[in-house]
Amino acid sequence: MMVLKALRMARDRRQHREGQYAALFEPYQGDEVVALDCELTGLDPQKAELVSIAAVKVKGDQVLTSQRFDVKLQKPDSLDADSIKIHHLRGVDLHGGEVVGDALAQLLNFIQNRPILGYYIDLDIAVLNRHLRPRFGFDLPNTTIELSRLYQRKMQQVNPELQPDLHFDQMAKKLGVPLLERHTALGDAITTALMYVRLNKGAIPV
């Protein structure tokens, strides 16, 4: 799987090296990451549709909330009562939302080639890629940082015998990070960013 992913990325880089998005495929040289969260209609990466997307930049020990991306999408056909219970976005709330292609173009411009941070980020990336490839001809090439793996590694450095609770709410509680607008894309992106800063810059709680 990793070999196929690397081969596909190399092919994408060759095909787009002279195009509008060539810079996405260049190694990142800066000191920022982008915390990303997507609200979806489900957990199956082959079927889930995008409801909203949010991202916020992190630089050092600062979460740059003034530099954020936050869009709602047009109502997907698969929006149902079960998904509404999670993200609380009804069809009427998505009236006037962005079309997927426009939202993705804006997202690419915001993220550029920065590393992408998230909680179970592989799911969000898989859904984004499902929409990106037919429209733009490539998957997101960015390096990803999985918050739950970072949390587990940091906690076990302090206590190797610990099997930490990797639920989002419990990680935030353990780190003393407030839950901001839980189950909204922007709230979860900012909370993810705050936990990342806490793990990298603060003392790890025992």
Could you characterize what this model shows?
- This protein has 206 residues and is α/β, with parallel strands linked by helices.
- The chain has one domain: Nucleotidyltransferase, domain 5, CATH 3.30.420.
- 42% of the residues lie in helices and 17% in strands.
- The protein is built from seven helices and five strands.
- A five-stranded mixed β-sheet has the order 3-2-1-4-5, sandwiched between helices.
- A hairpin with a 2-residue loop joins strand 2 and strand 3.
- Helix 5 runs parallel beside helix 7.
- The longest helix is centred in the C-terminal third of the chain and has 17 residues.
- The protein starts with a helix and ends in a 5-residue tail after the last helix.
- The mean pLDDT is 88.
Give the secondary structure arrangement, pairings included.
Layout: H1 2-16, E1 32-40, E2 50-59, E3 62-72, H2 81-87, H3 100-111, E4 116-118, H4 121-136, E5 144-146, H5 147-158, H6 168-175, H7 185-201
Helix pairs in contact: 5-7
Q: What gross morphology would you assign?
A: globular
Please state the CA-atom Rg, rounded to the nearest Å.
Answer: 17 Å
Query: In percent terms, what proportion of residues is strand?
Result: 15-25%
Mean pLDDT over the full residue set: 88
Main sheet overview: 5 strands, mixed
User: Can you tell me the CATH class?
Assistant: Alpha Beta
CATH superfamily: Ribonuclease H-like superfamily/Ribonuclease H
Supply the CATH architecture: 2-Layer Sandwich
Order of helices and strands: HEEEHHEHEHHH
Number of domains: 1
Enumerate how many helices there are, as a single number.
7
Task: Pick out the low-confidence regions.
Answer: none
How are the strands of the biggest sheet laid out side by side?
3-2-1-4-5
Helix content: 40-55%
Structural class: alpha/beta
Total beta strand runs: 5
Domain Exonuclease: 32-205
Keywords: Exonuclease, Hydrolase, Nuclease
Protein name: DNA polymerase III subunit epsilon
Pfam family, one: RNase_T
